[in-house]
Write a structure and sequence with these properties.
There is one protein chain. With 266 residues, the chain is α+β, with helices and mostly antiparallel strands. It has a single domain, classed as Gcn5-related N-acetyltransferase (GNAT) (Aminopeptidase). The protein is 34% helix and 29% strand. A 10-stranded mixed beta sheet has the order 1-2-3-4-7-8-10-9-5-6, sandwiched between helices. A hairpin with a 4-residue loop joins strand 5 and strand 6. The longest helix has 14 residues. The radius of gyration is 18 Å and the shape is globular. The N terminus is likely disordered.
């Protein structure tokens, strides 16, 4: 039993698939992560949130301290990152769901409802009332970035799987403690990453749903279908020269969707 625990701890600390190594970020990674953001292309800057320069280091350090940031490396060099965590603070949850994902509150505008089967196929559903109790146990799948030269190699998918495994135990405890009826993941997609038709390329949701369903299965909860909702939202943009951490208005931001994947426990 002791050996099993040690093996699990080792897996969570780091993991290698092929030429890539996945682990939690640490304080020493901050300069490299800042350099990745600094050299992001103009196209990338329309797909990922980049804070004004004076706030970037502090934001990374905060995410690392809270164990919310994960990195992919090859030959010791960081080539990608992902932010993912179980939302345990109610005030933070309300802020994220209302202001960023916009799936609750006065600005919530449901644009699509569907159901994803185990084969990854999306089936449309009529507009529906979404029970807010699905957010009792909720995982935030946030910003991610992979260096251009390493895209198309499944880096982000494996990094997502690794990050989900890292929050597995805490998620199980949260479900039990709060007697949650559902397990839910929220994430944002720009229109470029979501496409015009849900479930069709370039929509990233089918790939994200596959990782989510595998994660839920690991919790001992069989998954046949996963509910999927899209809400109108905007990726926040910032004036790079601003001395205040204040996003620009919606009309100066990138249109997209706040996305929800949810599995109701039987």
């Amino acid at each position: 039993m002791k050996r099993l625990v040690l093996l699990l701890v080792s897996f969570i600390s780091s993991c290698t698939y092929g030429m890539y190594h996945y682990r939690q970020a640490n304080e020493a990674d901050v300069p490299t992560l800042l350099a990745l953001l600094e050299h992001a292309s103009n196209d990338d800057r329309n797909k990922i949130v980049i804070l004004p320069e004076p706030f970037r280091a502090a934001a990374l350090q905060s995410a690392i301290k809270k164990e919310r940031l994960f990195v992919a490396t090859t030959d010791g060099a960081i080539i990608g990152y992902k932010k993912l965590f179980l939302i345990s603070d109610q005030e933070e949850k309300n802020q994220l769901l209302q202001d960023e994902i916009r799936c609750i509150g006065p600005r919530a505008l449901l644009t699509y409802a569907g159901r994803i089967d185990h084969a990854g196929q999306l089936h449309d559903l009529p507009p529906t009332h979404v029970d807010p109790r699905i957010y009792t146990t909720c995982i935030y799948n946030g910003g991610d970035f992979t260096a251009l030269s390493h895209r198309g190699n499944g880096v982000n998918r494996e990094l997502t799987n690794y990050a989900l495994h890292a929050v597995l135990h805490d998620t199980q405890e949260h479900v039990q403690t709060h007697q949650a009826d559902a397990i839910t993941m929220v994430y944002g997609l720009t229109e470029a990453n979501a496409g015009q038709e849900p479930g069709k390329s370039p929509d990233r949701t089918p790939s994200i749903a596959k990782s989510f369903q595998t994660f839920v299965n690991k919790m001992g909860v069989p998954v046949e279908t996963t509910d999927h909702y899209r809400y109108r939202a905007f990726m926040p943009m910032f004036d790079p020269a601003s001395t205040a951490l204040r996003p620009l208005p919606d009309e100066q931001s990138i249109a997209g969707f706040g996305c929800v994947l949810s599995h109701t426990r039987k």
